[in-house]
Hints:
Blueprint: H1 4-22, E1 55-57, E2 63-64, H2 69-85, H3 93-101, H4 106-114, H5 117-127, E3 131-139, E4 142-144, E5 150-163, H6 166-172, E6 179-191, E7 194-202, E8 206-209
Amino acid sequence: MIPTRRRTTAALSLALALIVTTVLTGCAEPAGTEAASPAPSASATPRFDPDATLWSISSTEEALGLDDPDVQALQQVVALHSGASDNRSPATVAESVTAEEMYFTPLFSEKLAAQGYRDAVVAMYDDADLTIEQTGVAWLQSTIDADRLHATVGFESLFAIVEASEGYLHELDVDPGAEFAQPREYSLTKVDGVWLIDDISKGPLRKSAEPTP
């Protein structure tokens, strides 16, 4: 049986690796394979003209409005997936990982399974007594390929650490209620008319506000 001290230390190291850097285990391409598009800059904040669109066709830069069917479908998939991944607690983490898989291509699901994604995430939340809650999504520049079969969606996920173990909070140097923003970039493929996620890149966390009183 693994001693509690070693178990907690391992969990904290894993938590930092998963949350502070990439969060989603397996999102970075392994050596020897084609690298994914780089994650959005951590300094990228959603500053834009409210009358301008953030969506375009990648090859022509043709602007796409929010009434575009693919734009609407992509926003829905991304919002639902990030909602599943950023609302978690020890009691719900296993269920939330299952919910995530609904939005993955079969190949991406297989890749994460081979890397032990489910077990790593469940262990992290259990060992750190971690609960997080999403507070919003801020869309960034996003593109759809001309063939309407591939897309890259940029956004920031905003969430708060509701509670966690003292050791975990110490490692992050935060208090309960600390709020963060994290830039993300999802690659999606249309499979049988449905948009599914086939890769995810995540930038480092940015403290977005002072802890809630």
